[in-house]
């Protein structure tokens, strides 16, 4: 599935991921391939991307969670996510 993370200043990440974990108002929620369409607000926390690799252009924006797994994170203050047909856009600050 394709995920794009955008801030008002720049594109944080764009690429294929296996799944994404997001900080929602009522707790974290996981979006996986073929997830039902969703639009949700996000609160402060970490957006975690589960992916096999990250393009070098976007790697500088992300933090690798650990050496063993391919989990990358990006801290946000707030935002919104729209996901439909295995494509997601996360608008955040």
Automatic annotation (TrEMBL):
Family annotation (Gene3D superfamilies): F0F1 ATP synthase delta/epsilon subunit, N-terminal (2.60.15.10)
Phylogenetic placement of the source organism: Bacteria, Pseudomonadati, Bacteroidota, Flavobacteriia, Flavobacteriales
Residue span, ATP synthase F1 complex delta/epsilon subunit N-terminal domain: 1-56
InterPro entries (alphabetical): ATP_synth_F1_dsu/esu, ATP_synth_F1_dsu/esu_N, ATPsynth_dsu/esu_N
One term under GO cellular component: endomembrane system
Family: Belongs to the ATPase epsilon chain family.
Keyword flag Nucleotide-binding: no
Full protein name: ATPase
Source organism of this protein record: Chryseobacterium contaminans
Membrane topology, as annotated: Peripheral membrane protein
Localization terms from the record: Endomembrane system
GO molecular function: proton-transporting ATP synthase activity, rotational mechanism
Keyword Membrane part of the UniProt annotation: yes
UniProt function note: Produces ATP from ADP in the presence of a proton gradient across the membrane.
One Pfam family named in its UniProt record: ATP-synt_DE_N
Key words, A-Z: ATP synthesis, CF(1), Ion transport, Membrane, Transport
């Amino acid at each position: 599935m394709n995920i794009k993370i955008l801030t008002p200043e720049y594109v944080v990440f764009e690429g294929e991921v296996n799944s994404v974990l997001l900080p929602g108002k009522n707790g974290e929620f996981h979006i996986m391939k073929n997830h039902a369409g969703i639009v949700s607000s996000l609160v402060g926390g970490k957006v975690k991307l589960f992916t096999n690799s990250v393009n070098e252009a976007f790697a500088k924006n992300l933090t690798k969670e650990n050496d063993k797994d391919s989990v990358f994170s990006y801290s946000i203050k707030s935002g919104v996510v729209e996901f439909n047909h295995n494509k997601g856009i996360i608008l955040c600050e």
